[in-house]
Structure formats: structure tokens, C-alpha cells
Amino acid sequence: MSETQVPKNTQDKKGMSRRNFMKNTGLLAGGLVGGGLFGGLITNQMKKQPASDKKPAASENKDMEARTFFSKTEDFETISAATERLFPEDKAGPGAIALGVPYFIDRQLSSDWGSNAKEYMKGPFPQNQEAAYYEDQSKDQNKQGPNSVTQVAAPTPRYQTRMNRGEIFREGVKTLQDTAQSKHKKKFFELEGEQMDEILTMLEEGKVRMNGIHSTVFFNLLLQTTIEGAYADPVYGGNRNMAGWKMKEFPGPRMGYLGQIEDEEFAVMKQESLRDYQEMWG
Amino acid sequence: MAKKLEKVDVVVVGSGWAGGIVSAEAAKAGHKVVTLERGKPVDRGDYVGVKDELRFSDRYEMMQNLAPETITSRNTLDEEALPVRTRNEMMAGTDLGGGSVHWAGATYRWRPIDFEIRSKTIERYGEKKIPEGMIIRDWGITYDEMEPYYDKWEKTAGISGEPDPLGDKRSSDYPNPPMKESPAIRLFKDTTKKMGYHPYQVASANLSQSYKNPDGETIAQCMFCSFCTEYGCDFGAKSDPLVTVIPTAIKTGNCEIRTNSLVRRVLHENGKATGVMYVDLRTGIEYIQPADVVVLGAFSFTNNRLLMLSKIGEQYDPVTRKGVIGRNFNGQFNITFLGARGFFDKKKFNLFMGAGALGGTLSDFAGDNFDHTDLDFINGGGIELRQYGHGPIATNSVPKGTKGWGPEFKEKSVHYTNRSLVAWYTPAVMSWWHNYTSLDPTYTDEFGDPLLRITNKYTDHDKAMAKFGIEKCTGIMEKMGADIVDPDSIPEEFDHIYDGGHYAGGVSMGENPETSAINNYLQLWDMENLFVVGGSAFPQFGGHHPTATIGALSYRASEGVIKYLKEPGLLTQPKKEGAKA
After folding, report:
1. Could you report the predicted ipTM of this complex, rounded to two decimals?
2. Which long-range contacts (CB under 8 A, 24 or more apart) does A198-206 make?
3. Is B303 exposed, middle or buried (0-12, 13-18, 19+ CB in 10 A)?
4. N or C: which end of chain B has fewer CB atoms below 10 A?
5. E strands of B19-114, at which residues?
6. Separate counts of helices (H) and strands (E) for chain A
7. Is the N-terminal amide bond of B441 cis, ω within 30° of 0?
8. DSSP letter string over B82-98?
9. How far is CA B130 from the centre of its chain?
10. Any catalytic annotation for residue B502?
11. Which residues of A are less than 8 Å from B404 in CB distance?
């Protein structure tokens, strides 16, 4: 958790520095600068010098490691254990817990996304066969459409419940705990891995009854947020030290790859975060 | 009481390509224009330095807030529709520039047969080729008539491309050369060429060089940064209304753009539109904006709903099959964009690089470029391999049969991150009597107005087409050398996921007012000073992505609006004979 530093300058060997970027796009050479909207914009946006590395490395900041949604430690431990089963540590790299995924989920649930601020939440909310069918359709269709390659590789949660996502998670945690208790007389996070998997599979397949919602919807949300937490920018509390990105050799946000897009060889680059990227723009 | 404002020549609803183009053209012609946009004001600076996959691709930063208003959805007439509640299930753009800002940039002209699908199908295969219940028709405009408008839009947008070897007559080349080729695209092209097909580079609104358009707007060069589809461009290098038609409209001094302004009604008297009623979403104050001409240039859902809420035109009833508003709902739905995914164990691609429209494509199975005599469908579509630039949250494909979570999922999803490619088919979806839009009887928006209800189901025709495309893409992916090839499976039924934004029709174009809502100037048959512009005009879909056709239709409509202001009246006379369906 300690090796990550803010890069000294925001350029890789083959990457693009701010100056090269401007040169390559013709922004320095003429034509564009001062001409039109983009010219004005780019000169305003880029007038700052690249920031120095005086800020603390992200890994030294432990302030994020506190709960803002789950009050009870036990609830948080339950979610943590479940996410680690979905996305376990292996030889490729850290699992959900080491990546900070549980904290990511905690913060997402206390955000406007967790309270469904931008979703249609007006009734009626029928709890009939049609609504159940709507919530639990074939998953094969979730990766189709012109924008689908840009979306989470989890089945789309189809929503017909009056609960918001935070409330679904509270019900979900309780369901995990109650199922562990009734099947094994133990707390969920004290179970053996395979026992946890068995319960998660029951939820995934809709075999556990939940109040007001199909258990598949909760499972899908849990899987979606686990993947998001592993790979979203570290600013959201997961993907600690960009370790999720390192596993995938994803470099993070960059100016661009104009000089590399045609290359046959695979480009291995050091990871940079949104913070690094915004520092460069100034 | 709504506050009445001073009358203008033209009031335009929406600021995407449709509303933006009409606003710019009418203002350039000297008319006073007010453009109303429900979203917030944004400019290029709002998209600089914000490359954040979670915020844009998974929390839908640029998509409509569904809390105040969404749609409802069902498959058949006897079901009760349920609301599409979350932005995971429906994406429609918002804010200044609309959905035209977050788009990918893939640009295709539709084919002559797309505009004359009914007559050309009958001519080549006989009337029996068109199945019972399919209500396709000719548009009332031909490709040759559309060509100048395509050409104009391509120049406005600075499209970067090379001609389709199987394409149609062009009056000029694309204004900019095609984008660079990545190794993945090279592999697709080399392979399909060897297979005897005719691949070429997808024409793109991500520009291959910096460019000044005929209106004097500058668009920068694409950096292949990969934060493209679902994002605004960091560099002003993706052609969208914010870098083209909106500044063009504003600099005339004739166009005022009002954001946070939600239009709730088109007002009309004695068969003529008198203006619109809108709400300032910050204050809640209602305004009446009177105008000589009203243009609906919003997203197709909004264009449909506003006519219905305003009680303009006759609502389509699928039982009697009478009425036109809501008829011919269509789109590139989830059953399109099926194909095959290949997993390469010995190859690794720089898939984190890319651009929305970076891709290779071929038209060998588009339109009527192949014989349909022994096939159980008509028309066709492009086959594409695109390199959008893959975000790490989205890129978790694993071979079929792999569990969707746990150790095996993690290992394979990490391993194949830069080793998996997709080829897909983008077929033309036809229109059917049972797929339509109407107002929902139960669910309402924040003002108590009914939501738009979509009734849509898949047909055997859709499935036959999808099956054909999957087979072709599977063949290509195998020849490309993938170690594992997973063909997509064909869904049984439409799953109410409104992904991608390619939803169309409902206010469709034609020659006969009994079956079409608008004429070929996008002028409403029933209200001659009302123009309804955008994808809502498609009587059925074409076999490629829709944006260039929306751009071209918007230039056509602009011409109509300007003509009408000079000399009011119907710009095209209806034809009733021979215009069946």
C-alpha cells in the first residue's frame, strides 16, 4: 500500500506530455490557438505549470477508511466478506477487500446514487408476476447495444421495487446474515468460503425470498458495485493504489495515444489517476 | 398563469443535432430563433480533465435524470407497462447539445434501398416477400434527393472517412481522410478482404486532423484517448453541436438558447401551432413562447410525447390500425448489435486506446447487396469491429461457460482484458403494426402528465436477421484467428433495456397522411407550421448507425422551415394512390 507516488512528471517514455500534445495537435504551430472556442479554451485550461509532487501519496491518506453508510461493523464485515468471494485475491493481484471495495460500496450507498436521486421512483410498485418477470429476465441480453461495450460486466439490475439502492443493500445484508444463521448457525463472515458461495449462488438464482425485491436484483447490484470498486478511479475509495488497473495493465486517464494507436506491440505504462490527470491540466 | 413572451419567427425544442442544425440554419437565414433545452448549459470546458469511467459510463453523468420523467415499457397490447426506472436501463442524453454530445461518432449514409424499401423489395422479390404485419414503406424521398443533405452534414461535422467500396454515388469525398488503423482493425480488414469482402474504415466524427467547417467552426484532431462514447470530448475533437451548430447559431445574433427550459406543450389554435408552453426548471415559472413556426427537434421519445400531450394529430390505435402519431415505432434494439466475440490467447491488443468511431466495417451484407431469395428476411446491415477504447470496469468479458464471479471469473477477466474482440451486425429493424408509442394510463411525470409508453416485441423476422448476422460474424472471428469464438445468443423477447439511444419512429415520414405523420420536409401533415425533426421521422430503420441520416434530415427540414416562412403552405402534396402502408 505504500509504493505509489504521484508521478514526477506526467509523461511516459512513449506517452504524451502536455507540450507534445499541443505540438501534435497543431495547437502550438498555429491555426488553432486563439482561433475559436477550442483555442481560447486550451490556452486558459493549460496556463498552469504541472504541479509538483508535494501532495501526500494517496496511500498515506487513511481518512477514507471509515464508514459513512453501514453503521454496524457486523454489516460492513458481511458485505466485505461477500465482495471478497466475488472478487478474491489471487496470484494476479489483490481481492476486493485489499482494493478497498467495501469502502467504495459504503460511500456509493451514501451518495445520491445510493438514494436513487436520479431514478424514477414513483408508484405504483406492483409486486406481481409481471414485475417479477421484469426483474429476472435472461441475462444474455445485458451486453448488447452500441454502448454496451462501455458498461459494467454485470447483469443489469432491473428495477421495480420501492426501495432505493441503500435500502436494498440493508435488506441484502440482512438476508445474507439470516440465511447464514438459519443454515449454519453462524455469522455470514465466519462461514467457510464454500458456504458463503452457496448462499451467494442462492441469491443469484433467486432462490432466497427477500421482501419487496427479487434476490437476483440485490445480487446483481452487489456484483456490479464490486467490479466498479475494483476498477473505478481511486478517488472513489476502491482500486487502492491503482492495483486493479495494474492487474489489467490499464494506464488510467491520459491525454491520448495518437503516436501509439498503430503500434503492434503492447504498451506497458505506469498507472496514473484522475488526480494526476487533472494536475496536468491545472 | 404562464407569462407570455414576445413572438419570434421560430421556436425550436431541443439542442442536439436536430434542434441545433435547424436553429443554426434558420438563424443564418436571418430569422429570429429561440431554442429551448431542458438540460443545463454546458460548454467544452465542462468535459476537460474529467476522464472518469464510473462517473460517465456507470453513473450516466450525461444522461437524462429519470426522477421527474421516464418511459414505460411492455411487449404486447394486453400487458400493463412498467416504468423503466433506472439509467442502467435507459440512456437518453441531456444538457446542451443533447445526446449528440455523448455519441460515438460512427457515420454512415443509409442506402437507396433504405429509402425505398417497400417498392424495391416488391420489385425484386414480389409482394409476398413482405410478411404480414410488417408496415414498412418508402420514405417519400430517395437517396439521390438526400445526397446533398448528407454531403452538407458531413462537411459541417468534418467527417473523416473513405468511401464504402460498395457504397452509393457521392457528390464529393469526405472532408477529412480516414482515421488511423489499429492492429485489431487491421486484422479485421485483412481477414475479411481475404474472405472476399470489402472492408473499409468506419467514417468518423472523431476527426483525423484539425478542420475548419464551412460555418467557420474549428474542430480539433482526435487523440485516441478512449474516453469518447458516453463522454464529452476533452479536446473538442469529436464533432458535436457544442463545437459546430450551436456556436454557429449564436454568432448570427439571431438565436437565443434557453437552457433549463422544459417544453410541456405545443400550443395551437385552428389547426396552426401558435408557440410552446415551457417551464424554467430552476424557478418553476411557466412561459409561453409564441412563434410563427414550431420545430420539435428533441429526442424521439420527447417528440412523440409532446405531440400526444398537446393533442396534435391522430393517435395510432393498433387495434383499428388507424391514426399516425405513435405508429411505426422502430429502432436499433438490443436484438441488433449481435455477433461474435473472439478470445485470443496468443495476441494482445492495446485496447485501452481507441475512439468512439474507430473501427473497420463492411457492407457486403447490408441493404440488398446480397440475394435474399432464400432468406427469411429483407434488408441487412453493416458488420463492424470497433475499438472504442475499453474501460477497466466495462472490460470483463470471459468465454461462455465461465462463472460470472469468483476465482475463475477474476483470472479470466483479467487475462482477456486486452485479448478479446467483437464483430457485430447492425441490421435494419423493420416496423410492425404492434410496435408503437402512446401515453401511459397509469404513470405520470413530475407535473402529473402521463409518461410515454412503448409497446415493443421481437418478431421472427428480427430473429432470422440476427441469426444470419451472428453466423457471418462468427465466421469472420474464426478466420481472424481467435482461439475461442463465442457467438451471441438470440434473445426470446425484448427485455425493456433501452440501451444505445437508437430509438426511432412514431412521427414518421411518408407520402400518405393516412399512414405517415410528416411529409418529406418533416412538416406535419395536420399542422403545416409544425416540423418534427430527428429519428422520430424514420418509418423504419436503416442498416447502419443513424446519426448522419438525422443530420441530413435536419438540413432538409431547415430548408423546409425557411421555405415555409417565405411562403406558408404544405411544402409537399400528399399522394394517396400507391402509397399503401
Report:
1. 0.95
2. A200/A82, A200/A85, A200/A86, A200/B405, A203/A172, A203/A175, A203/A176, A206/A136
3. buried
4. N
5. 33-36, 71-74, 82-83, 106-107
6. 11, 2
7. no
8. EE--STTTB--B-STTT
9. 25
10. yes
11. 153-155, 223
Q: Is A256 close to B65, i.e. CB distance below 8 A?
A: no
Mean pLDDT of A85-99: 97
Asked if the C-beta of A113 comes within 8 angstroms of chain B's C-beta atoms, the answer is yes
CATH 3.50.50.60 fits B3-566, yes or no: yes
The predicted model scores a pTM of: 0.93
**Hey, what's the cell of B578?**
400507391
Q: Which of A27, A90, A118 sits opposite B410 (nearest CB)?
A: A90
Instruction: Establish if A105 touches chain B: CB-CB under 8 angstroms.
Output: no
3-state secondary structure of A220: helix
> How many residues are recorded in chain B?
581
CA distances from B218 to B49, B180, B235, B250, B437 (A): 20, 21, 11, 15, 39
Among chain A residues, the shortest Cα distance to B407 is held by: A88
Going by DSSP bridges, is the β-strand pair A209-210/A213-214 parallel, antiparallel, or unpaired? Answer: antiparallel
Do residues A152 and B510 make contact, with C-beta atoms less than 8 angstroms apart?
Answer: no
Domains in chain B: boundaries: 3-566
d(CA B388, CA B356): 5
- Selecting from A26, A117, A228 the residue whose C-beta is nearest the C-beta of B67 gives A117
Q: Partners of B453 in the beta sheet?
A: B72, B438
- Give the N- to C-terminal CA distance of chain B in Å, as an integer: 43
Q: Which residues of A touch B444 (CB under 8 A)?
A: 122
| pLDDT tens-digit series, residues B459-487 | 999 999 999 999 999 999 999 999 999 99
Q: What residues in A contact B392, CB-CB < 8 Å?
A: 231, 244-245, 248, 250
What's the pLDDT tens digit per position in B314-355?
999 999 999 999 999 999 888 889 999 999 999 999 999 999
DSSP secondary structure letter of residue B508: -
Percent of chain B with pLDDT over 90: 95
Residues of A in contact with B491 (CB under 8 A): 138, 140-141
Other Cβ atoms closer than 10 A to A48: 12
Q: For residues B21, B24, B25 and B27, what is the CA-based torsion angle, rounded to 10 degrees?
A: 150
| Closest CB from A41, A226, A248 relative to B45 | A41
How does DSSP assign A223-240, residue by residue?
A: HHHHHHHHHS-GGGS-SG
Say if the Cβ atoms of B500 and A147 lie within 8 Å. Answer: yes
Q: Is A87 on the interface with B (CB under 8 A)?
A: yes
pLDDT band at residue A116 using 50, 70 and 90 as cut-offs: very high
